[in-house]
Request: fold
Amino acid sequence: MGEKIKVGLLFGGPSPEHKISIESARMVFYSLKTDHNREKYAIYPFYISESGYFNQFNQMRYASPGIPPEKNVAQRAIPSSLWLMDVIFPVMHGKFGEDATIQGFLSTLQLDFVGSDVMASALAMDKIGMKALLASGGFLIPRYKVILRGESPNWKEIADTLRFPLFIKPSNSGSSIGVTKVKDASGLESAYREALKWMDRVIVEEGVSCRELECGVLGDTDPIVSPVGEVSYTGEFYDYATKYGTGGATSRLIIPADIPVDVAERVQRMSLEIFKLFHARDMARVDFFYVERTGEVLVNEINTVPGFTKSSMYPKLWEKLGILNWDLSDRLIRLALNRKK
Reply:
């Protein structure tokens, strides 16, 4: 047996999705510790605290928000051991994690890493840029208005143009953080102020009466697609609390989705086309709105760093195809390493 491949698992970070990143990293860590992978990989967890401090652990059980104490200014420095890694596996969600910040950091250090590059990450994370690119590619998307930095929203014009309910969203956030469902004009201003807490560019999007479908993509120049899954939930919408079970609403993942074969095939085909349009790499989850009444399939978003938690759709989609967590992590690392050749 040759020398093990050194994998730097990068997670945490100053993001509202910090805790989700830790849970995703746990799954990746333990998937690389299975009998299938333990002889191939040496895994080194690099945890970035919510304040931006680096901490390196031997075991994932030591990683939790705020631990260890962040009093050593040397922890602000980049660990020298990061350069010893053969590949970096970033599992950071939301702002700073999938918006091209960490991808730019790793690219500047000339470190090879799993996942999309700077351009694809930035475009996919920013809802304004993402929607513009999707529209230019001919994909159907919900109608929306943009409120740019420094602009005063014209609520009358928006209410006259778009149909309620509306979703007011920060342009650059994940896991539905900062998103509010607004049922009438009286709730617009407060929802806008909530979105501004997270980002000074805001999207006002028309709600769609639909079923919510998701599809995984895996690969680089010749990607494959997963079965199509459906998200069913009891709340007003699929918000952070519903996704991660921190509120009163519940959700259920249905794999495969009980939809017509031609709709599933269309979703899969569109997922591949969107993956290529964004020049994404290695992994992505593409989310859709399926309007049964008309047969239309609208694109919601592409996520270039999907969740890897126990309740996340992305690994469950591949599990349905027989690609278990250990295999999924192995494939993703191999994709990144193959770009070095």
In short: The CA atoms of residues 12 and 22 lie 6 Å apart. The domain at 5-114 is CATH 3.40.50.20 (Rossmann fold).
